Structures are given as structure tokens and as C-alpha cells.
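The data layer described in this paper is built around a simple, fixed record for each protein. Such a record has a labelled line for the sequence and another for the C-alpha cells. For reference, a complete record is included directly beneath this paragraph.
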Amino acid sequence: MNDNIRLRNNVHTMGSGKQTMIFANGFGCNQSVWRFVTPAFADDFRIILFDYVGSGPDYGSYTVERYGTLDGYVQDVLDVCAALDVKDAVFVGHSVGAMIGLLASNRRPALFERLIMIGPSPRYMNEPPDYIGGFERQDLEELLTLMETNYDGWAGYLAPAIMGNPDRPALAGELESSFCATDPAIAKQFARATFFSDNRRDLRGSKVPALVLQCAQDIIAPLEVGAYVHHHLPGSTLRFMDATGHCPHLSHPEETVRLIKDYLENEVDEIRQRVAVFQDG
């Protein structure tokens, strides 16, 4: 069973540390996006890289019944943790991967010691007057329609907008290629599960300290979203990045590594105390 999960989720391990660090991709990406970040942690952690079913080489295990909502991707994380006997891990998640990590930690908090959330969003859709998510429903529906009618055109349009950094077009090209390597039907279903999810209530259920990394000029998770996550997530720390766009682990890996290391080395004890006070209250 463990070998099946390793194959299904394309699991790779590296590093020589005793504690585990898990890296979880965002929508439309595979584990290769972490290649500029993981070497900085390989001496201190056992690193786990994996792909969600449908985002890596395994398409045969994909079913709409399991992956029609984020719950199926949450179960992928929990399955990988079980297969590799994970506990007290540092979970690093990008975009929807950050929210998947939050949901997994809410179900099994003992598996996770800390969450690192890069560009998280609990709700992508605006809910006026109290919540700014960045998109109107019509915007999201039009994006899904474009995916269905012209998938390559959708990838070519969205990748540069997500990546930002127009002076470095190779970054957008990499993201576009990643989108185009995914089965369009699976990508559309994952997009719907991502962009129409509402996990705002799940923030307050967290029992795990978290770092929220908020990029500048991020059209997917604007500044208001990062502030909302921090305000509603117990024991969280918010750091605003100089990095622009939505993928700092690709565009600004040095800053991403520095902020994660600073958090892991200097802030944990204080944050644990804040979480305990919140839960007691």
C-alpha cells in the first residue's frame, strides 16, 4: 500500500535531517517548482516532494468523485504522510497547496509542527462588503469557459499574469508549459475546486503555528487576502515580501528561503504561546 501511494503521488525524498519538511505545489504545477528552494533545507530536514494525482505522471488514479473538491487533495497529503510515517513536520504549501495543508493539519494536527503558507487564499471570490478575494464570480466563470474552449490560449493568458515579473519572460514560459502539460479536463476540475472553494471558517480551526508570506502585486492573492488570513489564523505570523507576483519560490527563491529560515529559527516559541492562549480562550 505504501509503495502504491509513493508511485501514485510521485513521491521523492531528499535531505539528511531528522525532522520532515513537506513541499506542496499550487494549482497547475508539479514538484519541480521547488528546485531553487529545497537545497537550502536539505542539510537540516528530510524533504518530501510529491504531486497531487492528476498534477504529476499518474492520471489513471484520478476520479471526479474524489477530486471534485479540495478534500481529495487533502487526502493525498494525509496518505503521503501515512506512507512515510510523518509526524511533527514543517509543511510548506504554495497558493491552494497552502490551504490544502491547513485542511490536512486541521484533520490531523499531530502530523504538523508548523505551516509555511506562500500566497494562501481561503476564498478567491469577492464577498462584499466584508471580504475582498480579488475576483468577481463572472471573472472566474469566464476563465473556466476559456479553459474549456481554448486551453492553450488560457494558459498563455494566465501564466504571465500569475507569475508577474514581465522583465523575466522565461518564468511565465515555465508556468505556461506546466499548465499545458496537465490534462485539460483535470486542470479545469482542479481550477473549479480551487477558485470556488471557501475555507474562511477553517482558518480559526487551526492548531498549528503558521507563517504567511504575502507577495507584492499578487493578482491571485492580493494584500487584503494575506491580511485576512493572518487576522483569522491563530498564532500566525505575516511577512510582506519584496517579491512580486504569485510564485516567489520561482521568481525570488533567496528571499523565500531567508524568510522561512528566519521564522523557523527565531519565532516558534513565541508563536506557540500565542496559539495556546487563543485555544484556552
